[in-house]
Amino acid sequence: MKIRGFKQCGEIYRRVHWNNRGKKSIVWRCVSRLENTGLTCHSRTVLEDMIGIATVEAINKLIGQKDGFLTILKENIETVISETDNNIVSEIDKKLEELQKDLLRLANSKEDYNDIADEIYRLREERHKALAEEAGKKGSKQRLEEMEKFLNEQSTLLEKYDEQLVRRLIEKVTIFDEKLTIEFKSGVEVDV
């Protein structure tokens, strides 16, 4: 889970064991307040317990609104699935195969093949991007399905902070002066 502060410098927060006037606690502070980053930051220091309470509250908000939220999740899963286009990679593979045959033919006849080689490199790069995009879509679909499964299994509100659950569900927490925004791995954001 990432914690980032806004309104001030936008840097990430770091977990710190703090001894403030003899009271020991775990807090999250902006990196620019801990290290010399060249930025002056006056972002607030946040107690770890407060972040835990906020994440439980955000999860409970989702559980409380799960019927409407599940409908949206299912629509998002269908959108991700419909955007998946497996034909792109196979079309690129066919073009690459043809170009490689042309390249061999030109090389064997001692003709200039630089344009074809450049096109092969370009198509390989395009193929790599298409594969990375497909992997990203599969990851998004998996995160949406995990959130749907969690909401379907959850019959009661959370009573206390659960580290494993938070790591499974929460992508990041953004700290503002007046609120915390909890972003779930499914892409949903809840303000607390």
Give a brief outline of the structure.
With 192 residues, the chain is of the alpha+beta class. The chain has six helices and seven strands, in the order E-E-E-H-E-H-H-H-H-H-E-E-E.
| Most strands sheet | 4 strands, mixed
Number of strand elements: 7
- Helices and strands, in N-to-C order? EEEHEHHHHHEEE
The value of Rg in angstroms is 25 Å
Helix share bin: 55-70%
What's the tally of helices? Answer: 6
| Straight-line N-to-C gap | 17 Å
The general outline is elongated
Q: What is the typical, i.e. mean, pLDDT?
A: 79
Class based on secondary structure composition and strand pairing: alpha+beta
Strand order of the largest sheet: 1-5-6-7
Strand content: 15-25%
List segments where confidence is low: pLDDT < 50 over at least 5 consecutive residues: none
Give an account of the 3D structure.
The protein is an alpha+beta fold and about 190 residues long. The protein has helices at about 30-35, 50-65, 65-85, 85-110, 115-155, 165-170, and strands at about 1-5, 15-20, 25-30, 45, 170-175, 180-185, 190. A hairpin with a 4-residue loop joins strand 6 and strand 7 (about 190). Helix 3 packs antiparallel against helix 5.
